[in-house]
Amino acid sequence: MIVSNTKKVLVVTSSILGNQGQSRALAEHFKASAAKRGDVQVTERDLVAEELPHLGLAELSSWQVATEERTPEQRELAARSDALIEELLAHDVLVLAVPLYNLGIPSQLKAWFDRILRAGKTFRYTANGPQGLVEGKRAVILAARGGQYAGTEMDSQTPHIKTMLGLIGIGDVEAVFAEGLAMGDEHREQALSEAGQAIDAVIDRV
Asked: For residue 83, what are the CA distances in angstroms to 31, 44, 54, 145?
């Protein structure tokens, strides 16, 4: 049996600014650094280019129906979540490139989380509380912010993401911050440079 040492990385981006977004720049740096190694395979999901609708009752209800009993509409709705979960499970490392919008995550990213945080699929309820079913995965948060929030009470974003990942069993989570990006050109360039170095170090550990 041949065992591959290739690490599969899923990069999820969610900047509404597209290629002009600073979180996108962090993702591009990650991809470029990973490309220099022969043992890292990167897949990207752009949640703005392939935007998911807000989760609605019909889609939520489709998950509760046995596969063989679903209507054609329910099969189509359930397939959306199934495909995203299968994609996540097929990768070793999850990289979330996340801008800070009004102290929270983009609604596009929330729509993605709403479909991968799924009882019975990625976590289950037990007498001792929720138990994650996604095992052996790592996650990296690439956070781009106009101000400086890391380590303060105003950073409600990072704990939220870590809690959601922890729900499904991903507890090995590392964050790289590029902050103060709206505080002048010199500060922005320094912050992006330092974040780039931190990303390179993350790649070395993948």
From this structure: 23, 14, 16, 30
Domain presence at residue 140: yes
- Tell me: is residue 193 an annotated ligand-binding position: no
* Helix pair angle (22-35, 185-205), 10° resolution: 40
Question: Helix 72-89 and helix 107-116: axis angle, to 10°?
Answer: 100
pTM assigned to the model: 0.94
Q: What is the per-residue pLDDT across 36-90, written as a single tens digit (0 to 9) for each?
A: 988 999 999 999 999 999 999 999 999 999 999 999 999 999 999 999 999 999 9
Q: Is the pLDDT reported for residue 157 higher than 50?
A: yes
Helical spans, DSSP H, in 69-150: 72-89, 107-116
Tokens of 125: 């309820």
For residue 184, give its domain range. 7-205
**Residue (of 160, 162, 161, 158) closest to 150 by Cα position:** 158
Total domains in the chain come to 1
For residue 32, being part of any structural domain is answered with yes
Residue 206, pLDDT score: 78
Give the CATH number of the domain where residue 69 resides. 3.40.50.360
Residue with the two structure tokens 């063989």: 68
CB 178 within 8 A of CB 197: no
Instruction: Determine, yes or no, domain membership for 2.
Output: no
Q: Is residue 158 part of a domain?
A: yes
